[in-house]
Amino acid sequence: MTDTAVLAHTRAAFAAAGQTLANVRRDFPEWHRGRPHYALWALDVDLADVRSAVAAASHHLADLLLDGYTRQP
């Protein structure tokens, strides 16, 4: 098998395993369970090395990500 065929087979097997969730385009408001106020801890890692690693990962996974997905890592 070619690398492309192996990758396609691996992806199909992984998706068919029943242990994945479909990737959907929405904001998932239910995570806050109806609470009008909530807090979020976040780390600002907007650093050149992190941007470079995320860009490389995004390029590598491009055909698996939602089209036009532009949220911050």
Keywords:
about 70 residues, mainly alpha, 2 helices
How does this structure look, described?
It contains two helices and no strands. It is mainly alpha-helical and 73 residues long. The protein starts with a helix and ends in a 13-residue tail after the last helix. The mean pLDDT is 81.
Summarize the structure in short.
The protein has 73 residues and is mostly helical. Helices cover 37% and strands 0% of the residues. The longest helix has 14 residues, at 3-16.
- Compute the separation of the termini in Å: 34 Å
Q: Which regions are unreliable across 5 or more consecutive residues at pLDDT < 50?
A: none
**Overall body shape:** flat
Count of helical segments? Answer: 2
Largest sheet: none
H/E topology pattern: HH
Structural class: mainly alpha
The portion of residues forming beta strands comes to under 5%
Q: What value does the average pLDDT take?
A: 81
Helix share of residues? 25-40%
Strand tally: 0
Q: Calculate Rg over CA atoms.
A: 17 Å
The oligomerization state is single chain
